[in-house]
Amino acid sequence: MTEWTAAALPSFSGRTVIITGANSGLGLVTARELARVGADVVLAVRNTGKGDEAAASMTGNVAVRRLDLQDLASVRDFAAATERVDVLVNNAGIMAVPYARTVDGFESQIGTNHLGHFALTNLLLPKITDRVVTVSSFMHIFGRINIDDLNWKARPYSAWPAYGQSKLANLLFTSELQKRLSQAGSPVRALAAHPGYSHTNLQGQSGRKLGDAVMALGGQYFATDADFGARQTLYAVAADLPGDTFVGPRYAMRGPTGPAWRTRRARDTSMAAALWDLSERLTGTTFAL
User: Is 34 part of a structural domain of the chain?
Assistant: First the structure.
């Protein structure tokens, strides 16, 4: 069987795709390829200057709109100004960064990677016609959800465990969203994807010289490029897959694209429901169908 690549994308003419964090890395490649096949692509980015630069490098119908996932007011403004969308790609993320808080007081990684996208999805859901694709990570295997201290207020902060928690949250969110969509009789699907180990600008942001040096070395010798990483997202966007499919490389970091393995913790339906309830309370948004 021929390995799937972005060259196999069908026409997306007449369809609108919103991609968060699409001014660089995996998001930029995802946007570029979907614009190439005719989609009306919206780059939802915090820095619109960088978004304009990214849009200028693409062919097709590409718009740039401001969205700051670390500010729920910005998320609400973005959603309110959106008339319709066929596909939402929750791509933006930060990885293993020093401790910081969002505008709303969330730990920055769970706030950006999960809570911001959780709010955005719920607010846009009545306008979405096809699917929601959320970019997780193989690093979810190291994640544990601390439902009593999601925002690291009562325990010493550790950057990598915080990242793992946020990526596990992406998968639990996807499962619970699909459950709710199915119960509501909605044709919209929720899927997730992970890029394997792709070298992007996420690496080297921890503020720790040794750790960043190791990541740089790994990126140079072991990582795939952003095109390979974005291929997983694009497959989740375009392929006829069941809801709650997790797409990734067959061999975790490399290999043909298809359904990927997830941990037992990522299949914990009780935790998925508890995380959803907590996320609703924290963001003030609810399932809107």
Answer: yes
Q: Which residues are catalytic?
A: 163
Residue 268 lies in a domain: yes
37-49 pLDDT, tens digit per residue, is: 999 999 999 999 9
Boundaries of domain holding 33: 13-283
What are the residues whose beta carbons fall under 8 Å from the beta carbon of 118, sequence distance 6 or more? 173, 279, 283, 285
For 276, the token pair is 């959803």
pLDDT at position 18 over 50: yes
Whether 206 is in a domain gets the answer: yes
Note whether 177 and 190 are within 8 A (CB).
yes
**Tens digits of residue pLDDT in 172-209:** 999 999 999 999 999 999 999 999 885 555 545 545 55
CATH of the domain at 152: 3.40.50.720
| Three-state secondary-structure class, residue 262 | coil
For the chain, the domain total comes to 1
Residue 107 lies in a domain: yes
Strand partners, 19: 43, 89
Span 207-217, pLDDT tens digits? 555 554 444 44
Query: Which stretches of the chain are assigned E, i.e. beta strand?
Result: 16-20, 40-45, 61-66, 85-90, 128-135, 189-193, 246-251, 254-259
Calculate helix-pair angle for 117-124, 269-283, nearest 10 degrees: 80
